[in-house]
UniProtKB/TrEMBL annotation:
Gene3D superfamilies the record matches: NAD(P)-binding Rossmann-like Domain
Keywords attached to this entry: Oxidoreductase
Hydrolase keyword on record: no
UniProt-listed InterPro entries: NAD(P)-bd_dom_sf, Sc_DH/Rdtase_CS, SDR_fam
UniProt entry tagged with the keyword Oxidoreductase: yes
GO molecular function list: oxidoreductase activity
Name of the featured protein: Short chain dehydrogenase
Family: Belongs to the short-chain dehydrogenases/reductases (SDR) family.
Length: 250
């Protein structure tokens, strides 16, 4: 239970879902964590549940100022981050590609892709100084095996998956590891958007039928992988595009 003892982490979108559980597993394993979320109330609740090693920070990941502010707050309360998990994400309701307006397209790429650019600008110089660091980007199976109705979302997650590999190559000489975790659809707040229909047992069953292991992803499926990849047990792993998908992308 001490895989991350003494480590400092920032997790975006940590007010709920995958992010909250990643933060939980990190703290269980000895880390101190900044719970960054656009919903400060949700982030504060998670931080209160996790104890003194968790601090909530409001962070709109589409704002370079707020991302830099979250990193500054991390340095103030804990120190420079050893680990960053770019988990915050956005998905629009499934619809034909021509029905996605420009505002929705821009929000999809700003939250899912440009946010990683902002975080990289804020944390990589700190990691380069110490010649160590871990960056985990939450991609998606949508960027590996795309589905109709989510074309621009698929494209944004394809960008996350690929940029993670490119970052891994460029930053390896600085001792910085970068990996993409690619979950299949999970029972999160974005589920109905992915389904493109109400979240009913029948509609879930249709999608679950496409997953060989027969269920949706759970937050702890992603959190356990994020824990391993952030730990020294994964010190020789970088540039992965790792599906956490019950066999969906086979």
């Amino acid at each position: 239970m001490n895989l991350l003892k003494g480590k400092i982490a920032i997790v975006t979108g940590a007010g709920s879902g995958f992010g909250a559980q990643i933060a939980n597993r990190y703290i269980e394993n000895g880390a101190k964590v900044i719970i960054a979320d656009i919903n400060l109330e949700a982030a504060t609740k998670v931080a209160a549940e996790l104890g003194e090693n968790a601090v909530a920070v409001r962070c709109d990941v589409t704002s370079s100022t707020e991302v830099a502010g979250a990193v500054k707050r991390c340095i103030e309360v804990f120190g420079a981050p050893d680990i960053v998990v770019n988990n915050a994400g956005y998905a629009y309701t499934t619809r034909p590609l021509l029905e996605v307006d420009e505002e929705t397209f821009d929000r999809t790429f700003n939250v899912n892709v440009k946010s990683i650019y902002y975080m990289t600008q804020a944390v990589v110089p700190l990691m380069k100084e110490r010649k160590s660091g871990v960056i985990l980007n939450i991609g998606s199976t949508a960027g590996i095996r795309p589905r109709p109705g989510t074309v621009w979302y698929n494209a944004s997650k394809g960008a996350v998956n690929l940029l993670s590999k490119a970052m891994a190559v460029e930053l390896a000489a600085d001792g910085i590891r970068v990996n993409a975790i690619c979950p299949v659809i999970g029972a999160t707040a974005m589920l109905e958007n992915f389904l493109g229909a109400p979240d009913t047992p029948e509609n879930r069953a249709k999608f679950i039928a496409t997953i060989p292991l027969g269920r949706l992803s759970e937050p702890d499926d992603v959190a356990q992988v994020a824990l391993f990849l952030a730990s020294d047990n994964a010190e020789f792993l970088t540039g992965l595009e790792l599906p956490v998908d019950g066999g969906r992308t086979i």
